[in-house]
Amino acid sequence: MSTSRLYLTTALVLSLSAGFAPAAFAQGSAQATPAADEQPTEVVVTGQRASRRSRLDTLAPVDVVTAQSLQTQGSTELAQGLSRVAPSLNFPRPAGVDGTDNVRPASLRGLSPDQTLVLVDGKRRHTSALVNVNGSTGRGSSAVDLNAIPEIALDRLEVLRDGASAQYGSDAIAGVINLHLREADHGAGVSVSYGEYDTDVDPANSSRHASDGATTNVSGWVGLPLGSDGFLTISAETRHRAPTSRGDIDALVSPAVVTSRYGDPAQLSASVFINAGKPLNDNWTLYGNASVSDLNSKSAAFFRHTNASGNIPEIYPFGFLPIINAQSKDYSATVGARGNIGEWTSDFSLSAGGNKLDYYTLNSVNPSYGAASPRDFYDGQMKYDQTVFNADISRPFAVSGWASPLTLALGLEARQEKYAIKAGDVASYALGSDTTKSAGAQGFSGFQPSNVVDVDRNNVGVYADVAADITDRFSFDAAIRAENYSDFGDNVSGKLAARYKLTDQFALRGSVSTGFRAPSLAQQYFTSTASVLDTSGSVGKIVETGTFPATSAVATALGAEPLNPEKSTSYTLGGVWHSGPFEVTLDAYSIKIEDRILLSENISRTFSTQVADLLAPYGVSAARFFINGADTTTNGVDLVANYRLPTERLGRFNFSLAYNHNETEIDRLNPLNNSPLDPQPVLFARVRQVILTNSSPEDKATVGVDWNAGNWTVNGRATYYGDVIDPASVQANDIHSGDHTLVDLSASYRFGTGTTVTLGADNLFDEYPDATPANLNITSGNGVGALSFTRFSPFGFNGRYIYAKLSQSW
C-alpha cells in the first residue's frame, strides 16, 4: 500500500468512527469490571499453553495492562505508555545515534530489546529491519517496533516476566509481551489529542524556555457485525509530531547559539489494524487480523561548521545540519481457525509480516564531490520478512485423585525469515574526485554494492506442555520444546513452574527454565562500510572500513566464527497475597545468559603489523563484527501492589505501587578462539561493557492513584528512576543521569453524550536528567554542545509535556 493510500485509508476509518453512532455503547471488551471489594477476574493466557488462570493464580508473574490505563496518559506511543505502568520495562529516548533515533527499542528487566518476545493475540510479531549499531541501549539488537502498533487497536496487554522459550521459542529470555486486539461487533470511538513541551532547558552553558514537539494524534475504531455472530473491528491512527531540540550553545559560532537539533525527531505516521472473527458452525471459528503502518521520521545528525572538512562552503557558506530521514513500513496478516477435533481443542494459523526501512540523508553533502555534490541522497534499504505457521492442540485427561484433569498441549511452529540490504545511490557512498575529503553523505553514508545482502532461513519447533492442579493447593506446569534452524542446528529448552497455596490469601510460586535466542539474520549478515583513501603506500588506494558479517572472509581472517544462539537459565521465586481489595506480588529472579551476541570494537590495521597483514588482501583498514562475546547474570526483584478503596461520598480510589530492582554483571568476556592474533585486540571495551550492565536503572518505582467519582476521573502517577551511566573510556569521565522522580497528572470529565474531555501534564514539574558537564560535552569538531543530556536517560530529556484530549464513544 502506498503512503498516500495508507493516509487516505486512515482518514476514512477515522471518519467512519466519527460517523458511526449506534444506540448501544460498546467498550470493545467482554471483561466485566469487578466490584471494589472483589478480586479482578482477568483470565491470563500468556505463558500458559495448557491452562488458563486468573491473574493472581498464575504460576509466573504476569502484568495485565488495560488499554484504558494507556489512554489516560499524554503519550500516544505504545512503548512509552507501557514503560510507565509495567515495572520492569524501560523505553529510553536516545538521540544522536542515527537510525535508532527513529525506531527506538524497549527493554525488559535490563536485558537486550531482542531478548523479549512480542506476540499479537498469541502469534509471533515480526522484528524491525533496523540493527542498532551505535552507542545506545540495545546496541547490536534488532527488536520489534512496538510503536508501529496503535494503542487504539488494543483491548489489553499481558507482560510475562519470566523466561518462556520452552513455550514460545526463540527470543523469550527476558519474557513475553502479548498484545490482545480489540474485538467488537458494534460501537465506535474517536479521539483527538494535542500536546507540546512547555519547558525550561538548562544545560551546562546556557538557559532557555522551549515550546516545541507539538504533537497531534487522531485515532478511532469501529465495530461492525459479520452476520449475526461475527465481528469486524477496524482501528486507525495518525500522528504528527514536531521535533524537539535540547542541545547546548555552540561556542564555535558567533554569536554562540544552539546549532544542533538534539532531541526527538519530527515524525508523521499512520496505521490501520483490522481484526475479525466469524463462527463457521457450532464447532469451528475463523479468525484473522491485518495491519499496515507507515512512519516518516526525520532526525538530525551533528552540525557541520563552515570550515569543517565535511563541508563544501560553496554549497553551505554558514555550515549545515544533516537530516536523517527514515521511512519505515510495517505490514502483517494472520488467518486461522480454532475448534475441536474430537476431544482436542485445536488452533491452526498462518501469519506473515515484515518491515521495510528506507534511508535518506537530506540537507547534506558528499565532500569528495566538491561543489558538484547533491544535497539529498537515497542511502538504501533494509528489509525483514517472516512467515509463520502454527498448529496447537490440547485436551484434558482425568487423573484419579487429582483436583483437576491433567491438560496436555502439543504444538508445532514453522517459520521462514528473509533479510535483505539494498544499495543506495552512488553519490551516497562513493569517494569522488577530491580524495582528500571523506566519502559518502555527511550524517549517514549509504549502503554500497558490497553491502548488498539477500538471505533467508527456516526453522521448525515442536513443544509439549502439561499442567494440572494436583490438589486444591498445589499446581504445576511443565514444558519442553525442540527447535531446528537451517543455519545453526538444534536447540532444546525446558521449563517447570509450580504454585503452592499456603492459605486462601497467600501462595508461593516459582519456576526454573532454560531458554535461547537465535542469532538474527541481521546480526549474521548486516554489513555497512565506508570507502577511504589509503595513502600509507607509495600509491594511494581505496580501502573499506566498517561492519562485516562474522562469516565474511575479512572477519574469518581475524578469528571470527559463525554465531551460536544465546542460551539462558532462569529462576524465579515469589509470593502472592490478596485479601479483599488489597493484593501484592513479590517475585525475585535470576537470569544467566551464555554467549550473548555483541558487536565488537573496530579492529584496525594500526593495532599491529599482524592485523595489517591480515586485512591487506581484502582492501580493508578496519573491521568489526558480531561475536558471542560475553556471559552475564541478571538478578532482580519485582514488587507490585494494588489497593481499591470505595467511599460513599468521595468516590472510588485505586492505589498502586510497582517497584523493580535489577542488576546485570558480566561473568566472562569471550575471546576469539580461532584468532591467529597475538596479542588479541580489545573486543569489548569498557564503554560497551558498561552499556551492557548499566544502561537501564537499577531501581525504578511507580506510585499511582486513580480516582473516580461520577463523571470525573483523575489519574496521578509518580515514577522514580535510579541513576544510569553514560560511560566513557575512563570512569572519571562517565556521565550520570542522576536519581529523578517524574510526576504525571491528568483529569477527565465524561459528559452524558459519551464525550470525554481530558487535560493533563506528563512530567508536571519539568524534571530533567543531570546536565552533561561542559567539559564532557562535545567541544570541537562536529556537533559542538549537542550532547547536553545523556542519551541513556531512562525518561528522555524533553521536559514537561502538556496536552488536551477530546474523545467520543458510541
UniProtKB/TrEMBL annotation:
Localization, UniProt: Cell outer membrane
Signal peptide annotation: 1-26
Matches recorded under CDD domains: ligand_gated_channel
Lineage of origin: Bacteria, Pseudomonadati, Pseudomonadota, Alphaproteobacteria, Caulobacterales
Protein name per the record: Iron complex outermembrane recepter protein
Top-level taxon in the UniProt lineage: Bacteria
Family label: Belongs to the TonB-dependent receptor family.
Residues passing through the membrane, by range: none
Keywords from the named record: Cell outer membrane, Membrane, Signal, TonB box, Transmembrane, Transmembrane beta strand, Transport
TonB-dependent receptor-like beta-barrel domain ranges (all copies): 294-764
